[in-house]
Amino acid sequence: MTSHVVPAGPFDPPDVNWAPVSRKLASARLSMTAIVVGVPAVGGAVAALLSGIVWLWVIPGVFVALGLWAAWLIPRQVRAVGYAERADDLLIRKGIMFRSMVVVPYGRMQYVDVQAGPLARAFGIASVQLHTASPSSDAAIDGLTPVEATRLRDKLASRGEARLAGL
């Protein structure tokens, strides 16, 4: 009996163990979405209630529908984000429908920084941004715990220095 092996696609290289980001990233994104769609939804509901114009209820309805769609989509998006450290490069994958994978060779990294805005700090997450000579590289990993972000920053910086020095 011959077994059929499905070849790995461009987004699933063989022998790669993907590390997921923190689920707190979904909570942070959902909180921001709640603010962005909640304020207009409440404002539209108040306007519809005070004016008595029935068709104005469409406004809060649209924002509630957008909020429900985001509540379904955001956790799926966060589960699709991952990164993998290999011997010579770092892989970052994102996306569900429009997938992307960025491969950053350690020798191309110029510097690595960690960022955390007020909302990210409130949820206990941070982002690691990799900077290369190419201005178009999108090498960022959002939703890391501060400990993991620090570890990754230090490890990537040391690997980048070693590769840049030709070691």
TrEMBL record:
InterPro entries in the record, alphabetically? Answer: YdbS-like_PH
Do you know which Pfam families this protein is assigned to? bPH_2 (PF03703)
Every copy of the YdbS-like PH domain together lies at: 79-155
What parts of the sequence cross the membrane? 30-49, 55-74
- Give UniProt keywords alphabetically: Membrane, Transmembrane, Transmembrane helix
Going by the entry's taxonomy, the superkingdom of the source organism is recorded as Bacteria
Q: Which PANTHER family has this protein been placed in?
A: TRANSMEMBRANE PROTEIN-RELATED (PTHR34473:SF3), UPF0699 TRANSMEMBRANE PROTEIN YDBS (PTHR34473)
Entry protein name: YdbS-like PH domain-containing protein
Organism whose genome encodes this protein? Pengzhenrongella frigida
